[in-house]
Amino acid sequence: MADNPTAAAPASPYTRTNPFPGKLVVNRSLCGEGSDKDTRHFEIDLKGWGLNYEVGDSMTVWPMNDPALVEEIIKTIGAKGDEQVTGPKGPTTLREALLRDCRITQTTPKFLKAIAERASAAPLLNELLDPSRKEDLDRYLWGMEVIDFLIEHPSIKFAPQELVDLLAKLQPRLYSISSSLKAHPEQVHFTIDVVHYESHGRMRKGVCSSFLAERAENVPIPVFPNTSKFRLPEDGNTPIIMVGPGTGVAPFRAYLQERKAVGAKGRNWLFFGSQKASCNYFYKEELDQMKKDGLLTRLDCAWSRDQEKKIYVQNHMLDNGAEIWKWLDGEGAHFFVCGDARRMAKDVDAALRKIMQNQGGKTLDEANAYVEKLKSDKRYKRDVY
Known about the structure:
The protein is an alpha/beta fold. The chain folds into three domains: 20-61 and 173-226, Beta Barrel (Elongation Factor Tu (Ef-tu), domain 3), CATH 2.40.30; 67-166, CATH 1.20.990.10; 240-384, Nucleotide-binding domain of ferredoxin-NADP reductase (FNR) module (Rossmann fold, 3-Layer(aba) Sandwich), CATH 3.40.50. The chain has helices at residues 67-76, 94-101, 109-118, 123-128, 134-141, 146-152, 160-166, 207-215, 250-262, 284-292, 313-319, 321-331, 344-360, 364-376, and strands at residues 20-29, 39-45, 58-61, 84-87, 90-93, 173-176, 187-193, 196-199, 202-205, 221-226, 240-243, 268-274, 298-303, 334-339, 380-384. It is globular and about 70 Å long.
């Protein structure tokens, strides 16, 4: 009997609770000499996955904690590490719970309460745990981790199970996907700032970014896609304007790869920004090639530290307001923003509304209504964090 060509493919065994064990195959710096940041390009092999994702989606990554920090915590509480405990995911050893299951950097209210109750020298902490002092507590805790409190109060000795019960569950991280499956089948790419800073005399590291940058070479990286509404227009002829400074360029690299792969004819305009052109121009060769090939119609870069007056993507938007208005109002372009929510996305939004007034001759109210209409028509999308 012939195979049924319409039979459904077997369902993938991988789920959010059983993520796929990816393999790190590329970990390279995107920064040159003199950079204040450590931004990296990661490629993870997904062979044998059988799942799918779309450009604009993000990927959930489950990290492991820093083994050196785990050992320091074990030593500080006077434990060995092989003690049996029940962690957030079930029975395991103390070492494994601290490595894979528990959040060992940020403190929890339960942990702080336990410290305050037992520490003779923590009257301030007791005061700050009053709900009315939340802002003061946040300021006090900035850059403080579990290990700081354990070292500061050596008289307190937590039993292994007790410590595990006071910690929160280690949460996965979400990263924008910076590749298209059509261009890179069975792979996912990320563009990530590796977090490290000093506080209270200690070097601190971002849990997931340092896991990928320093400790993921020979261990499985559990990943699972997270569906997003940050989608390209269905019609490949639609022009798109993309604003993605820093790691915000990630989904737009994926968009451009996708549009090339499917032969989309729509024009593409990218606003990219970072600190210095000499050492923070991520994907310069790729973007230059896309411009040369005609895939990238326009590329406007803003370098904030290359001159006395800082220049950002929103400044270039305002300088090119007439053309942006033409693309949006005359040609039905879609407008996308990805990156920092606190400042950049707000400034870009304000610049967009100003362009409506300056170039579209609209009042403030009319400009606001126009932007809201773009949003409801799904022509203005933001992926901000």
